[in-house]
Amino acid sequence: MDAKISNVTPPDLAPLDELLRVRELERFVTRELELLDGRQFEAWSDLFTDDGVYWAPSRVDQEDSQTELSLIYDDRELREMRFLRLRHPRVHAQIPHHRTTHLVGNFVIDEIDEESGQIGFHCHFIMHDYRPDWDQRTFSGRYDYRVVRDSSSFKIKFKKATVINCDAMHFPISIPF
Amino acid sequence: MTIAVDLRNFVQPDRVHRDLYEDPQIFEMEMERLFRRAWTYAGHVSQVPKIGDFLCTTIGTQPLVMTRHTDGKVYVLHNRCGHRGVKVINTEQGNAKLLRCMFHGWTFRANGELAGLTQPEGYPPDFNPDPVACGMPKVARMEIYHGFVFVSLSADGPDFKDYFGGVLSSLDDLIAYAPEGEVEITGGLLRYGYPGNWKFQADNSCDMYHVVYSHESSRKGNTQYIRRPGDTGGIPFFDKSNKVVTFDASGLWAFENGHGWEGAVVQSHENTSKWYQEYEARLEKQHGKERTRQILTRKRHNTIFYPNLVIQDLNMHVRLIRPHRVDLTEILIYPIKLKGAPEEMFIESIRMLNTTNSAASMTQADDVEAFIRGHAGLRTKDANPWVLIARGDGTETPDPAYERGYRTFGSSELLLRKQYQSWLNLMTHGA
Fold first, then answer.
1. What is the C-alpha separation between B12 and B10, in angstroms, rounded?
2. Under CATH, which number does the domain B41-145 receive?
3. Is B330 left (phi over 0), alpha (psi -120 to 50) or beta?
4. Which of A86, B242, B273, B399 has its CA 20 to 30 A from that of A142?
């Protein structure tokens, strides 16, 4: 499940072909992140395949998500649990709730599997996070994606958000990176 | 120091003063007195399995390093050079033949002794580079219990067994869950923090009163979310009358010196998954049916070894409380692995620990919210200065099953009263 996609030689694409493909992925990720910033958590979760996983490791070079702790390792069941909680009228830790903006860039295609329709790519992100009365925080790092074509768009099979200070002491985090 | 206040006035039988949570001078006194005299948790021997392994930790605000020396034994040293006091080990963990100070190159053995100082010809003839006096100092006292390493930074203070008393049974029962009778600390680490005093976390470690209110958002119907696939039930919040908190029946145990545990909310961890049957079978092979039944009838939820260690039975982990400042606290979460248990069991435990105890957790965030608001609310200076801990006062009875143990109903605040008596003893000893 934890597709290793960071060490693959990038496919040799003609510049224009690459531009079009990156633009398509960029558009997808931009919309995905707007769902998080817009607190449309259920719609965000629906972007994942049924077996799709979101992973935020607790160490920058962490490879094992099963026998080592993570900040978040959510399959569909845990994502639903997480967002059910965020929708609860008495989710005290979210009164008032956090606001976020996610920014992405530096897209690189790592792997294209035409047969299965899967694409592995990575990009970098900055997320600002603010809760009234708290200092604004910045999280940044790298996203590793594996997406699969789904009619006119994509579904996420795997998304890993490696935050550069994921091993630091953090105050509570409520919105995925 | 202008602490002319008599701390005894600040700790009453059923209330404590807000300054315990908010006053920087009291915090400094805690670091000088309480965290030195008390027995505190430094780490587990399984975290330094090989000769030369080291692991940094902090007791109070003092930097320490736990090592495994060539004699095979575990040592806990003050992490400072025998020369000019510079912190010697600057990475969280690793392995080294010798511990070398970056400043002037002095080297030390894993038992703290000076191995060599550089350019010795520069020292006067009467200078004595005594390996111990010029070494990295060992902590004053250290005890290892089932692999858990406890230290006291002060040479005088309560004896280890006297200090913990019957609460050590919690570690006896913990290792019994492991088919091989041993646990290890492995599987990484989670850390989170909050702007507030360390005692908010200590207070809350065995608080059964807050659960149905603070954690309302993780309640579905009458139970908390089911934790692992195959679990036969979640944690029930209320009993059938829908009034009394079910946790009251599971009880609370408290000990002198501030230790204690919450009775198990879920006594059976029975699970329909294959790995559970396998786990049971392995225990039975070791102990037979009857003893296995005993082992698997859980007695505890959280246990606190006052002041800095909490061990949880449900999603098995070590929780280490690390004070930074009067208003900043760090919590470290280490998974506990049962030696000889099926790997799947550990994987499930990791999966749930991510959701309950990471900085991005779905339940711990509620507790942390209460700590943050505690710190915010206690900035109130011009009105009621008291924090009440009166619930259940007088309901406790001695439990002869445990040395100096008392039992009462689950949501009682008895354990807080024991903690603040201990706090006062440790803070005022010899004063």
1. 6
2. 2.102.10.10
3. beta
4. A86
The residue to which tokens 């009462």 are assigned: B408
Residues of B within 8 A of A2 (CB-CB) are none
Q: Which of B136, B178, B141 is nearest to B157 (CA)?
A: B141
Confidence of residue B226 (pLDDT cuts 50, 70, 90): low
Residue B332 pLDDT exceeds 60: yes
> Which position has the token pair 């109130």?
B380
pLDDT, tens digit, 9 for 90 and up, residues B279-300: 999 999 999 999 999 999 999 9
Q: What is the pLDDT of residue B246?
A: 73
Could you tell me the pLDDT band of residue B76, with boundaries at 50, 70 and 90?
very high
A62 with B187: Cβ contact below 8 A:
no
A45 inside 8 A of chain B by CB: no
Within-domain flag for A143: yes
Residue B144 parent element (H or E): strand B141-145
Q: Which chain B residues have a beta carbon less than 8 Å from that of A91?
A: 217, 366
pLDDT of the residue at B242: 65
Does pLDDT of B26 surpass 70?
Answer: yes
Q: Which fold has domain B159-427?
A: Naphthalene 1,2-dioxygenase Alpha Subunit; Chain A, domain 1 (3.90.380)
Q: Which residues in A lie closer than 8 A to residue B354 (C-beta atoms)?
A: 69-73
Assess A166–B contact: CB distance below 8 Å, yes or no: no
